[in-house]
Amino acid sequence: MADPITLSRRSLLQASGVTAAALALGVHSPGPASANEPTLASDPFTLGVASGAPRTDGMVLWTRLAPDPLAVDGHGGAPLANITVSWQVASDEEFADVVASGNALAQPGLAHAVHPRVTGLTAATVYFYRFTAGQWQSPTGRFRTLPVPGAGDDAFSFALASCQAWYHGHFTAYKHMLAEPDLDLVVFVGDYIYEYAITAGTGGNLWREGVEVGPEHGHETETLRDYRLRYSLFKSDPHLQAIHARVPMINVWDDHEVENNYVGGGSAYGLSDEVFAHRIAVAYRAFYENLPLDLVAKPDGPQADITSGFDVGSLARFSLLDTRQFRDPRPEDIDDPAFDDPERTMLGAQQEAWVGERLAQSSTTWNLLVNGVTVAAITEDRRDQWDGFPAARQRLLDAMSQASNPVVLTGDIHKNVAIELRRDFASDEDTNVGVELICTSIASDGDGSATSGPIDDWLQHEYVKLYDGRRGYVHVHLTAEEMHSTFVYVDHVEADDRAPRRVLAEFVTSAGDPHLRSV
Ligand code: FE
Ligand code: CA
User: Fold this and answer.
1) Is the pTM above the cut of 0.85?
2) What's the CA-to-centroid distance between 312 and ligand 1, angstroms?
3) How far, in Å, from the CA of 241 to the mean position of ligand 1?
4) How would you class 495 by CB atoms within 10 Å of its CB: exposed for 0-12, middle for 13-18, buried for 19 or more?
5) Region of residue 210 (phi > 0: left; psi between -120 and 50: alpha; otherwise: beta)
6) 194 CA distance to ligand 2 centroid (A)?
7) How far, in Å, is the centroid of ligand 1 from the Cα of 410?
8) Beta strands in 390-463 (DSSP E)
9) pLDDT for 91-136, tens place per residue?
């Protein structure tokens, strides 16, 4: 028979909707901090705060306790014990009107990250949030809940970002993103960290001037400790912390969150499947620990579900795709007929069916696919991108044609590119179904230049409308009538974070007309 005390506690938790799993995973806590918790001798909120997984009635809030963020054991200097973190959400920046509050248990097993989901808020409304642990209070974050159809969904703005190799340059792009007068969301399309060894000096890759890193960063990330430390290093950037605090971020991963060019369960560098499964497991776990993700994205060993979606009223539907975990392996030989196998998959059958349904059943004006790698046909030699999955790409384009105004949001290549997506890339005719906006990197590849990279491969196609190899982001403003996309860049990122904001190109896409009109 069950212990009556356990039973009553369980009933209490069930009545409040708190499951034992949520309790154990830094989402909830049974109550306020108890007296025997260790005290925090210095400010544990050095990695900032964040929000994500947006809904009409709330948001996931995130922070991670790290009084000494770059401590080499990856635990951020937090005591190896459970610590209760309290959170508050208010309608005003002074927290005079607190509308929701709670506790979450930060645990060493999840690097003292907490992911409370706030519910019960009003749609299309701005809120402020903050955390408390011991005597310490976090910086204040803000977010706007999503609108419901017909109320506050007349316009929505987001910034598209990817590829933030911290060691290659300053996050100047985030500094300018922060100053955008209208911004509801950041859409991050992969390479939030890089796994490579960071080395200074001639031939090294530490191009961000004015910083030093310890020898613990001098090898490729392999262990949970390594990945945690890598997130801490990248998240130490003040502009990244500031943008996280200002607006929610949604994230899909690409390859470098684990290993360059990996596919499904397989390493691109010959690691055994057994060793690589461990590496995926710790990499996915550190990804969850360091981003404002829903509990559903918490990995189970080497598997995790980062696909999700949400609607911005009747204006836009976002669908987040995982283009790494379920893709088929890459044949060695470029002429291998396996590339043309109709069964060959990028998303896996289940995810493909899921996104197909979301597109077919959507009634929003815009339909955005948050995607890792380039969809458009560029060259047959781009085997890591959708070019290496021609049958799967055709199925995706066919599915996109079922929805109104599909837009693919992509990263990965460290170039600013704007493309009109054709249903039939083999034809010279305009068979456009939608557009693909590819954001350049925040810092990866350093300063770059307008023409760096294989520019001719891209501009040989009439449907590629822009190519530029400098750092920046894309700002996108949606209304029921049009999508206005602004490609923002900076001249340099290596020397300092002072390069001014420059506009490379602006395009308007009218609803119902899948073209990029230069303005
Ligand atoms: Fe990248
Ligand atoms: Ca990539």
Assistant:
1) yes
2) 28
3) 20
4) middle
5) left
6) 9
7) 11
8) 406-410, 416-422, 432-438, 448-449
9) 999 999 999 999 999 999 999 999 999 999 999 999 999 999 999 9
